[in-house]
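Example record

The entry below shows one chain as it appears in the dataset: sequence first, then structure tokens.
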Amino acid sequence: MKLTSAIGLFVLFFSLAGCATDRRLAPDLSGDQIVVTVKVPEELIAEEMKVMYRSKLCTFTDHTASGVPYQRDGYQRTDIQPVRQGQTDLYEAKLAVDGGGDCQWRLSNVTFGVMYKNPTKFGDGVVYGVGGGVVVIFDGNDSGRGGADRKVEGDLILRQEFYPWIHEKFIGGYEKSVNLKGEGFMYVKYQALQARRVYFEPIVYSRFVARSIGSREKREGNQTIFYYPDGSSSPEIQSEPSFRKLQAIRLAAESQK
């Protein structure tokens, strides 16, 4: 009897422990949600959204730079493809705030954006590079791409301007890419703790193209030269075209019409 009871208790304990370590997401789609909408220009497409959840129950051990162990909140990611709304240019995804599961996951952040639908319109063999991305943080944690650049109260309504930037690189293999150069370049990062709606409208000025050609070999003093749509050129400290220069060129051109 004692042996049987012991075995029964062990099985019960093992079963409970197994449940406690089940880290799967189970989002509650009937509960609180955050709606993310992207208005997509004709030449672009909406990228898949990378949605991050965190848990204070299911933690894991990490280490500092000096090797000291400490506990961190657990995290899980799920990818969601935004859905086109009828025949409009709006694409939408609904994110459950409650990630569910035994870990009681909670929505932490989402990464999304746009990219060129057909990069070869800029030349044979051209691929899409970077830019056009947005990170929105809904809690006090940094995202996988770092902390927020800006904080907003309430919903986030974001309209951002972009310019095409064509770059040729040689070091590490030849590649010609088209990038979306915005004010924050690769990703703009916002913290929006009270948001229940996120709206992103990228505005692309496709007539104003920046170009650059990378160095063919690593040598001290080599610089990438950027060529602007008004015919001017210059090196840039940040190794990317100047958003301010592109804005000034466009505004000057539009004022002359």
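Notes for this example: The chain has a mean pLDDT of 89. The chain has one domain: 22-255.
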